Amino acid sequence: MEKDSLLPNDIARLIELVRERGLPQHVAIIMDGNGRWAKKRGLPRTAGHQAGTQTAERLIRFAGRDLKLPYLTLFAFSTENWARPTEEVDFIMDLLDKFITEKLAEFEREGVHVNVLGDMTPLPDKLRQRVDQAVRETAGNSRLVLNIALNYGSRQEIIRACRDVAKRVASGEVDPAKIDEQAITTSLYTSEIPDPDLIIRTSGEMRLSNFLLWQAAYTELYFTDTLWPDFGPDELVRAIAEYQERERRYGSVEDAE
Ligand code: IPE
Ligand code: IPE
Ligand code: MG
Q1: Which of 131, 159, 168, 253 is the residue whose CA sits 20 to 30 A from 5?
Q2: Is residue 148 in contact with ligand 2, taking CB distance under 6 Å?
Q3: Model pTM?
Q4: Where residue 209 sits, what CATH number does that domain have?
C-alpha cells in the first residue's frame, strides 16, 4: 500500500484479499443516479453531476494507485443523453472539459492512459480538443487504462463496425463468408481493450442502456442501489469480491470430462 493511500486499515486488508484472489482485468461502470442524489437534497440535477465527478476522480485514483486494476471504463454520456434539457447537457460538457483539464497532470503522474469510446465529432470544439490532448499526452502511460465512454452508444458502435466491414467487403479485401467475430471486434471502439469482466451499475436500475452490448456477452453484472455520488472505493472492492465468488462458465459445464 502506498503511503498516501486514502484507505483505512480494514479496507486495505480487503484490497489485499481481492488482489490475492485475482483481480478482474476490466471493470466498467454505468455511473447512474446523479439526478436523484441531487433531488434528495433539494438541489438542481447539475449539483448531482458535480458530486458525481468527484466520485469518479476518487475512484480513478483508487483503481490505479491502490487496487492496480488494469482497465477501468466509465460511462459518462450516452448517445441518448442529448435528449436532456440543453442546460443540463451544456453543464455536463463543461464539467467534462474541466475534469479532463484539471486531471491531466495527475493522469500523467499516476500513469493513467486515457482512451475515449464514442463519437467525438458532435462534441463542443473545446471539449473535443481537450479529449484529443488527453489521449495524445497519456498514450505512453500504462498503469491504468481509463476508458471514458462519451457520446457512446453500443448500437451506433456496432453500426459503425458494420459499415467498416462492408467497406472492406466492397473493396474486395474481405470475403463475406470469412466475416467472423474478430472482423467485428477489430472495428469497435474497444478494439484494443479486453471485454469487461464486470459491469457495475449504480442507482438501482437494472439495464444496460446501450452500453457495451457486444462486449458484455459474458460479462458479470453487479447492480447496486447506491447512487453514483455515494459510490465509494469500498463498494468497488465489495463488487469485485462478489465477482470473485461467481463461476464463469461461458456455456460449458463445471467439470467437463
Ligand atoms: C448519470 O446520472 C449521469 C448521466 C447520465 C450523464 P443521471 O443524470 O442519469 O441521474 P438520474 O438517473 O436521473 O438519477
Ligand atoms: C446511462 O444512464 C448513461 C450514463 C450513465 C452515462 P441513463 O440515466 O441515461 O439511462 P436510462 O435513461 O435510465 O436508461
Ligand atoms: Mg440516470
Answers
A1: 131
A2: no
A3: 0.95
A4: 3.40.1180.10
